[in-house]
Design a protein that fits this description.
Helix content: 25-40%
Radius of gyration: 15 Å
Strand content: 15-25%
Number of helices: 4
Number of strands: 7
Structural class: alpha+beta
Shape: globular
Distance between the termini: 19 Å
Largest sheet: 7 strands, mixed
C-alpha cells in the first residue's frame, strides 16, 4: 500500500525542508510505520522519551512486537539529523554508530538473541540495518548495500523493506 497516497503522510513529507525540526521526520515516520506495524498484528509504536543510560542520544521511535505475552523491541528508528545534513558523511557515520550502540544496549537489556533491525534517517533519506546475534557490528539490511532511500522517490523500495521487516519480526 503506497504510503504517499495518504494526504496526511504527503503533508508531513512536504514539511521536510532545510531548517525544519527533527520532529517533522518523526511525525512522518510514525504515520508511515503505523500502516505496516499494526496493532492487529501485535505491534506497538512508541516514541522514546528517555535517553538510555549509556547513550546520550535516544531512539526516536521503537517498534515492539508481543510474542507469547512478552513485548520485545524489534525495530528501532533513529532519526539523527535535519534535512541540511543529508549529504554529510560524518553525520551518517554518527547515525550508524548511534544505531549500533542502541541495538547492543537493547540486546543486553531484554536478553534478545534474535536479529535486531534499525532504520537511521537523516532528513529525507533512510538507511536500513541489522545486528545479528553474537555480532557487535551493524550490517546493511539484506539487499540494500548501504543505499540511502528517499521517502518519496524510493517509496516502493521502502514499502518492500518495511513489509520484509514485518515478515522477519513477526
Amino acid at each position: 500500500m503506497p504510503y504517499m497516497q495518504f494526504p496526511v503522510i504527503k503533508s508531513y513529507y512536504d514539511k521536510l525542508k532545510k531548517g525544519s525540526p527533527e520532529a517533522d521526520v518523526d511525525s512522518l515516520w510514525i504515520n508511515i510505520l503505523g500502516l505496516y506495524f499494526t496493532v492487529p498484528k501485535d505491534y506497538g509504536l512508541e516514541q522514546e522519551t528517555r535517553p538510555l543510560t549509556d547513550i546520550k542520544k535516544r531512539a526516536d521511535i521503537r517498534i515492539r512486537y508481543v510474542r507469547n505475552g512478552i513485548p520485545k523491541k524489534v525495530v528501532i528508528l533513529v532519526e539523527d539529523k535535519r534535512v541540511e545534513f543529508e549529504s554529510q558523511t560524518s553525520v551518517w557515520k554518527e547515525a550508524g554508530d548511534q544505531v549500533k550502540d542502541y541495538l547492543k544496549l537493547v540486546r543486553t537489556e531484554q536478553e534478545n538473541d534474535s536479529t535486531l533491525y534499525a532504520i537511521a534517517t537523516v532528513g529525507r533519506y533512510s538507511r536500513f540495518y541489522c545486528l545479528d546475534p553474537d555480532e557487535n557490528e551493524l550490517t546493511d539490511y539484506p539487499g540494500t548495500s548501504g543505499k540511502p532511500f528517499e521517502f518519496n522517490k524510493d517509496e516502493a523500495d521502502i514499502e518492500a523493506l518495511l513489509n520484509s521487516l514485518v515478515t522477519k519480526t513477526s
